[in-house]
Model the fold of this input.
Amino acid sequence: MNFRTLGPILLLGAMWGTSFLLIKIAVMDIPPLSLAALRLGIGGLILWLVVLVQRSPFVITGKGWLHMLVMSITACAFPFALISMAEQYIDSAVAGILNGLTPLFTILLAHFFISCEKMSLRRIVGVLSGFIGTLILLSPALMGEEIMTDLWSMLGVALAALSYAVGMVYGRYFLKGQYSLSFTAMQLSTGPVVLFPFIWLFELPWPISDVSWQSWGAIFTLALWGTSFAYVLYYKILHDNGALALSMVTYLLPLFSVILGLFILDEQLSLYAYAAGILILLGMLLVNQDVHLHRSRKNSHVAKTRISV
Done:
């Protein structure tokens, strides 16, 4: 893999990995549900501008609207809100580590809902490694060394990772080959509409005048850098290098979140967190390596069949 391929992957990992740091800064002044809605609303608006400049086609018909709504809830509104609520109480680095469960949950769900993605021994070991890592990360709270708020917050991020996985499997099942920037722009723009009733019930009014410039800067950077530009780069990598190259980004999110949390926010990770991060990363590597091997063998078999014919 040369730098032209690896460079965009590293950049996208930095974009999404930085999101945990920015959420931690912004949630100090902005309520979590409102934060998620602002991120989606501003990000969606910027992405619509990109769609207009590129003159991308906008085609959503029939059940496409229902699929878009499901993706907006599972891949945007719900996990964004959960992570924002969790980061009120736990470090951004811990949230990034737990977000590494997303590909493991995806493999687990794909086994039941996608016929060509069945579990293998390597995948089972990878998933078990990730979940053991999660239990290690949760163990201080389970043993009473930390307050229960931390436990529920970490479970909230794990639930967000599961929601991302549901969105990925749903999209793979119903929207294969149908993704576009305009679809994603609508997906982001629908998020604030989904969240608004809950914001109205639980967070309004909140004093806008008390929000610091650091928090406003974090939310706009999050929307621009970690949402809009990230999705543009996401589709470029997918178009130029394919889904396998794109899957490498999942390794980078926990690493970036930990590094930024340690050096910028001065967060201190326990040995539990380091052990958990290693096991979750190992699980991701095992699962992804197995996916690569499976698809390589499948492509090789198809090529041989064509030659014989």
